[in-house]
Amino acid sequence: MTGDGVSFEKSFMKKRYLKLTILLILLPSILLQGCWIPTRPGAPTPQQPPAEVPEPVVTEPPPEDPLLPGLFTLRYDPDFTMNPIFALSRDNIMLTSFLYESLFILNENLMAVPLLCASWHSEDNITFVYEILPDIAMHDGSTLTADDVAYSIRQARNNQRSRHRSKLRSVSEIHSDGELTVTITLENPNVRFNRLLDIPIIKNDSIDSRMPPGTGPYFFPTDEAMRLIRFAGYRYFSDLPLNMIHLIEARDSDLTDLFDNGDLSLLWDDPTGAFDVRINRFHDTYSFNTTTLQYMGFNANSFVLGNNDVRRAIGCAIERQFIVENIMNVPRHGQTIAAPVAISPVFDMYDTDWEFRGDLLVEMGLLIDRAGLADSDHIGFLSVPDGFGGFRRFTLDFIVNIENSHKRDAAQHIAESLRQYGFNVNVRELQWSEFMSALQEGNFDMYYGETQLGADFDLSPLLLPGEGNLNFGDTGNHAFRPLIHDFLAAETQEEVSFAGEQLNLAILQHAPFIPILYKRHAIYSHVGAIVNASPSQSGIFHNFHEWSIDMFMLN
Predict the structure, then answer these.
(1) What is the mean pLDDT of residues 229-253?
(2) Residues pairing with 384 in the sheet
(3) What 8-state DSSP symbol labels residue 143?
(4) Are 117 and 130 in contact (CB under 8 A)?
(5) Which one of 161, 361, 403, 530 is most buried, by most CB atoms within 10 A?
(6) Do the Cβ atoms of 183 and 129 come closer than 8 Å?
(7) Distances (CA, A) of 255 to 264, 423, 551
(8) DSSP code per residue over 319-371
(9) CA dihedral in degrees (72, 76, 81, 87; nearest 10)?
(10) How far apart are CA 191 and CA 104, in angstroms?
(11) How many Å from the N-terminal Cα to the C-terminal Cα in the chain?
């Protein structure tokens, strides 16, 4: 170890010793304030039935008191809803997994893990019967019933404002059978339907509430409170690492200073999102996979891009690995994963045989020749046959949202690559509202897009025409429907491999879109402050009772 390393270690140990001394002096006061709850020997294990406990008693400092260093504090936007069906604020979405649970959650590998579901069965992968856990307390003092579960999923499926609506579009019927049984019927078989049931469960008939009752480990003591209190009815109440979670409002521009100063305990980051979080202090990173796909979309009504071979040739020019390593994964490594095909490489039944094995440049040349494109006037750019024995010059209009620097840089790199192979491309950088207007009006040739798919990797939104689908350029085709059906109905690895091969081959041949990469998200915490965190796409704080939090390290 170098001299600097020794100095740093001595300084660090002195700070730890000083904090330990202060904690021992203040320990009785801290315990009375409810700011720190130690692990109690003999606490009931998760397998034991929940004990009868009274409603939680609020023992935190008065809400008007200033926040003290070492408190676990998160960002919150009180001006927006906490209703988990509608919530769009990223900060409030992060907090919803404290308040609400679901039948299943997705683990870090995007596989379904039962949460409120005790058991389930299906004989045809169309009709699914779920038994929910008994004696699950809700924040309003009631007990969770099948009516609550059916109501929540129905609202997520049918309500126009629901952020979960798209992934439940195949659900045709939802009803409760008795106190603990829910039956869900689909239009078509889906072996991996459980992966879509990370839908937050709220109280029956509470859809209009800003904070509907749920079953999560914490709750708001009042609608105006800037803190969450642990819920005494929660089945793992004794295992929760914190009695209270403090909340603060903050501007995006203040996040770095708040985190660096210890005033914010944790950050959730979409590293390739529109807002780039900058972190100066040493920190721990917990990354997790998502089903968010970035892709290049086309306008099939374009006189050039109406030809499948032209779209395929363009796809051959995209350097996915370069975009991932040199654009998306800068400055932090591991933020995205290249997507050789439309289904994510992290899918547990992914087959590398789906990937194209030929020489992409040779393939591009063959496709350009077959489409009849040529540099007819020797200016270095391709022209398209005009149908009358001549050629017509073209410039492809490639639109991208200017507010996302990663997407903008990726689009510019793709355009530069295409120019090298003879495609004249102009990148048009637009504000979000202008970008969406251009998509809806069909005012583009190509666009840099992003969408979150369901964890079953149903590609219907990208492949099928219809309202609500991503069919901006009329590239959707009903011919994909049986291929999607077979992929979702496949059970064994052999069946999935075959169905996936047929689906990906059709996407390659028709090129309605070109997959580029899948995103990963991350949470950042102070070094050593959090152990055993297991964030996932379903929620940052699921299984929070298994986390360990070192209050010394939060300052």
Answers:
(1) 94
(2) 392
(3) B
(4) yes
(5) 530
(6) yes
(7) 8, 42, 20
(8) -HHHHIIIIITSSSTTSEEE-SSSS-TTSTT--GGGS--S-HHHHHHHHHHHH
(9) -90
(10) 15
(11) 26
Rounded CA gap, 538 and 541, in Å?
9
In this predicted structure, the answer to whether residue 354 has a pLDDT above a threshold of 50 is yes
Q: CA–CA separation, 88 vs 512, rounded Å?
A: 29
Can you tell me whether residue 373 is helix, strand or coil?
coil
Question: According to the model, what pLDDT value does residue 41 have?
Answer: 33
| Residue bearing tokens 């400092």 | 61
Q: Which helix (H) or strand (E) holds 309?
A: helix 308-316
Q: Is 90 exposed, middle or buried (0-12, 13-18, 19+ CB in 10 A)?
A: middle
Q: E strand or H helix at 127, and its extent?
A: strand 127-132
User: How open is the CA angle 296-299-303, to the nearest 5 degrees?
Assistant: 130
Helix axes 360-371, 308-316, angle to 10 degrees: 150
453: left (phi over 0), alpha (psi -120 to 50) or beta: beta
Q: Please check whether residue 268 is in contact with residue 525, taking contact to mean a CB–CB distance below 8 angstroms.
A: no
Please name the residue that has the structure tokens 């591991």. 334
Q: Which residues are paired to 398 by β-bridges? A: 427, 446
pLDDT tens, position by position, 448-460: 999 999 999 999 9
Q: Tokens for 477, please give them.
A: 């085709």
| Bridge partners for 374 per DSSP | 383
* pTM beyond 0.70: yes
Tokens of 506: 């059709």
Amino acid 89 reads S
CA dist 374 and 203 (Å) reads 63
Which phi and psi angles does 27 have, rounded to 5°? Answer: -55, -45
> In the 8-state DSSP scheme, what is residue 478?
G
Residue the block writes with tokens 């690559």: 417
* Whether the bond into 331 is cis, omega within 30 of 0: yes
Residues 308, 294: Cα–Cα separation, whole Å: 20
Return d(Cα 497, Cα 447) in angstroms, integer: 30
**Torsion, CA 215, CA 218, CA 221, CA 227, rounded to 10:** -150
User: Residue 195 corresponds to which tokens in the numbers above?
Assistant: 């992966």
For 90, the token pair is: 């990223």
pLDDT class for 555, splitting at 50, 70, 90? low
Contact 176/145 with Cβ under 8 angstroms? yes
Pairing of strands 171-177, 117-121: unpaired
Residue with tokens 């800068």: 330
CA distance 489 to 298: 29
| d(C-alpha 119, C-alpha 110), whole Å | 19
